[in-house]
């Protein structure tokens, strides 16, 4: 283990937790504002990470990706909501689905903005060069925080249940095909796991990684300053 590996793990965890918690809170807040109290009643408008943790998606998957030095992404427990509370169930479902990725985009922009301000403030930057803790914030936490939020945003926009992108697919799916689509959903998670884990390991092709590099990583290079 290199001397940089432990700070990498610590900063990745510290960055990942608020990214995924605020992602789920975005879903819950959108549903609540659209008139559905279900998520709020089950404590999903909470900053407490325990309320949102999915054993595989929030813990095991990110840890495995860290160990394999792959982009860190994951998912939490789906936020419960009842479309019957919405005036327009289809539109409401889409808004709730996109609220999580939108929360990640906002966090990424805020993190990049802080990095830009700090990088242009010479005394602050020089102070970081002489302070190990501040150096970790600049060199590890801020870029990881922005990257993780972008990875989570684009990852969750994939049109595969249980990811948020499936709500986009459902919104544009003709009404007569929706029952068939919802039946197919129950088989989507195993396919998703094969794409994420099995394909890279056995076929040495990482379609999710290629997609994230083309989207999240390229956007990161545009919005994040070069120190």
Give a description of the structure.
This protein has 227 residues and is mostly helical. Helices cover 70% and strands 0% of the residues. It is built from ten helices and no strands. The protein has helices spanning 5-33, 38-41, 55-67, 89-120, 122-129, 132-156, 165-172, 178-185, 188-203, 207-223. The two termini are 26 Å apart. The mean pLDDT is 84.
Structure in a nutshell:
The protein has 227 residues and is mainly α. It contains ten helices and no strands.
Keywords:
227 residues; single chain; globular
| Termini gap | 26 Å
User: What structural class results from the helix and strand content?
Assistant: mainly alpha
Uncertain spans, ≥5 residues at pLDDT below 50?
A: none
Q: State the total count of DSSP E strands.
A: 0
SSE inventory with pairings:
Layout: H1 5-33, H2 38-41, H3 55-67, H4 89-120, H5 122-129, H6 132-156, H7 165-172, H8 178-185, H9 188-203, H10 207-223
